[in-house]
Amino acid sequence: MQLSYFKKLPIMVQLSLLGLLVVSVMMLIMAANYMSAINVVKRNNAEYVKGIISQMNQSISSNNNDYKRSIETVAYNKTVQEFLSAADPTQKYELFTQLRAYLSDMAGMKEGILDIALVDKHGAVYNLRADADQLTVISREIPRNNLYYFLGFKMIDLRYKSTPVLVAGARIYSTTDFEAGKNELGTLLLVINNRLLFGDGNLVHLPEGALVYMTDRNGRLFFTNDDSSSLGEPIPEDTLLDEKHEYMMHREAIRDLDGEIVIKMPKSVLLQGLNKIRLKQLIMVAVALFLMIIPLLYVSNNILQPLKKLMRLMGEVTLGEKKNLSKRVEVDGYAEMIIMASRFNEMLEEIEDLTDRLLDSKRVLYETELIKRRAELSFLQSQINPHFLYNTLESIKGLAADEGSSQIFELTTALSLFFRYSIKGPDMVSLERELTIIKNYIYIHQIRFGKRLQVEYDISTKCFGCLVPRMILQPIVENAIKYGIEPLERTGLLRIKGYRDGENLLLFVEDNGMGISPVKLAEINASIERRQSAADSLDGYSESGIGLANVHDRIRIKFGETYGIGMTSELEGGTTVSLKIPARGEA
């Protein structure tokens, strides 16, 4: 079904659709390859970043173990134990010099240790660099009975400068009388460089534009290379949501710190190489499309242009004007198109010859038919309806027998005028003249029917000067009286109306008589339209002078196919005959 529809499309549309199909397939293949490449890049990147995160975790774990060992070493050092256990101030002072030297040596043994602080059970702080008051507060965060605890991120004044650091610590218990929670000597704090914990050399291996976020157990950032984020604060919510889908996100826990590593990779950087490849592919498709259009245009020019010339001439021929049959088409292009044009020209020559012969035959037939109709019209006009003449003479005889009335004179005069008008006169008369004769004709019938026949005229004075065919209304009025009003037992009303509608004159003859059944009415209208003779078309409905069909025929012969008569009727509801002719001339 779809293929059949495709075959009916214009050639240019078919060629364009085929070209579009080829390009679409190429684009789909490119898109599939591009998406496949994106998935490969994403998968490789995920594995690569996962490896870097693993290295960071290993560095953190290794450094954390070193810090843990350092804390254990310091916490249970003999000098530290004696210093924190000494009650004598003199002894404590003598041990302090040794303690300070020891703490300094321990701080230098591991890169990244910024300060080591001891806080005794009275809150006194002994350290190298950090602010003592801050360390006192921090020491209270170390849980009891805990030999090592990684607090996480802190801001501490080092030599009067606020510095972001990491803090780990432990409670110190006496080694001579160790029972957790019963002989606590103080607290040990380790202040650590936040950048050296994870080995920031790993960041060098990340792609350009990668953003790194590291949080402690409290979810606070202790490292990030994102300038829009602040250390000590949680990772911004919009950073994690990435509503625009501009990044690839990787998250993994820092097991030793109860924290988390988050790395965001910008897709634009990862796919930069692929985008360049895609651009090259698009350029190749554009070039291929351009190269495909050139032969397409060449083929279409050699096929479509000759076809368009043929179709244009075919359209002119179908307009029905004989002059177009003498035209010929000349085309260039493929041999098949030239042969087709030649055969079409030969066909036009044959059609032109046949048309000339057909027109000659029609002209002869038309002239013969016209002569026949004129003879028939002359014959019909010369006839006197015996029925009408008999009734009229009976009326005259009855009046003469009953009384000497002026009506006899008027009736005779009306009859004389009517017969004189019907037998001779010009073919076209004014509507006013036609109405005068119709009034005489109706007067004759009124003498016969008396009050049973009433008549009304509703004619616009603008119509009086219009020319109409002579005796055009009499057959219509006669039918209305004979078949509409005469069978009535009540008073019959005959109404004649007329007005101008633009360039046309419209006349109506209405009666309130018996009416016509719908079936019979349809037969009458169809017969009138076929322009048959009165006797054949109306099957006896009109036996008066010039029948309705002849009136319709006369109008069409005179004025054309758009003019004529029409009939509407309802059974027991009367009949209306309408007449349409051009509103021309003055009498």
Taken as a percent bin, the fraction of beta residues is 15-25%
End-to-end Cα distance? 67 Å
The total of beta strands comes to 16
What is the SS-derived class? Answer: alpha+beta
**Cα-atom radius of gyration:** 59 Å
Low-confidence stretches: 532-546
- Mean pLDDT, to the nearest integer, reads 80
Q: Which CATH architecture of the largest domain would you pick?
A: 2-Layer Sandwich
Our count of domains comes out at 3
- The CATH class assignment of the largest domain is Alpha Beta
Strands of the biggest beta sheet: in what spatial order? 2-1-5-4-3
Q: What's the main sheet like?
A: 5 strands, antiparallel
CATH superfamily of the largest domain: PAS domain
Could you say what the CATH topology of the largest domain is called? Beta-Lactamase
Counting DSSP H or I runs of 4 or more residues, the number of helices is 16
Range of helix content: 40-55%
- Overall geometry comes to elongated
Membrane topology: Multi-pass membrane protein
GO molecular function, one term: ATP binding
Transmembrane segments: 12-35, 282-304
Domain HAMP: 301-356
Question: Could you characterize the architecture of this molecule?
Answer:
With 587 residues, the protein is α+β, with helices and mostly antiparallel strands. The chain has three domains: 260 residues, PAS domain (Beta-Lactamase); 87 residues, no CATH class; 198 residues, Histidine kinase-like ATPase, C-terminal domain (Heat Shock Protein 90, 2-Layer Sandwich). 52% of the residues lie in helices and 20% in strands. A five-stranded antiparallel β-sheet has the order 2-1-5-4-3. The protein has a five-stranded mixed β-sheet with strand order 11-13-14-16-15. A hairpin with a 5-residue loop joins strand 6 and strand 7. The protein is elongated. 25% of the residues are buried. About 3% of the residues have low confidence. Its EC number is 2.7.13.3.
